[in-house]
Amino acid sequence: MERYEFFKQFHNIHPADYHLLTDGFKTRSFRKGDFITIPGQVQRDLYFVKSGVQMSYFDTGDKIYTLSFSYFPLLCAIAESFSFQVPSKYHLVCLTDSELEYISYTDLQQLIDQSQQIERLFRRMMEAMLADMINLHIELRALTIEERYKNFCSKSPHLLQLVPHKYIASYLGIDPTNFSRLFNHVKF
């Protein structure tokens, strides 16, 4: 899927506004294990995944809680740190070598002031992100571990080969032993 088609899922942005936004993108490469954002750091750039897999997580010292994964064509960010320009409470790390396009907070704000189409696009993307977070909370509370596993496999099956299973288990709220059992016995 091309990035333009991805954006059109949220808002039917005019090609001129799309180019106004994307012509200013820069590219940055990260290696597996590189941190994009760490707790206490303000995320100054919004990333768009070109390649690779990234993960946001919260570390209590005793346990890692996986919050999200990003991959092409998704956004890659600690949303509240970028949106409000406040220190992050989470880590954002590359699980694989990654190439990301990005735009700075300042540049994006200027474009939002300049184009109602771009503003609408980002508002709709944030609304979708909020809806996805609510759906995840419902799944974690209302579905069995097998249902959660099957839902994950239907949405992001490629991550089973790219992401250590302990992180997927954490994301799904499943004990790693139970996750291994599901992985070996449940077909989707």
TrEMBL record:
<dbReference type="InterPro" id="IPR000595">
    <property type="entry name" value="cNMP-bd_dom"/>
</dbReference>
<dbReference type="GO" id="GO:0016301">
    <property type="term" value="F:kinase activity"/>
</dbReference>
<keyword id="KW-0808">Transferase</keyword>
<protein>
    <submittedName>
        <fullName>cAMP-binding domain of CRP or a regulatory subunit of cAMP-dependent protein kinases</fullName>
    </submittedName>
</protein>
<feature type="domain" description="Cyclic nucleotide-binding">
    <location>
        <begin position="9"/>
        <end position="52"/>
    </location>
</feature>
<dbReference type="InterPro" id="IPR014710">
    <property type="entry name" value="RmlC-like_jellyroll"/>
</dbReference>
<dbReference type="InterPro" id="IPR018490">
    <property type="entry name" value="cNMP-bd_dom_sf"/>
</dbReference>
<keyword id="KW-0418">Kinase</keyword>
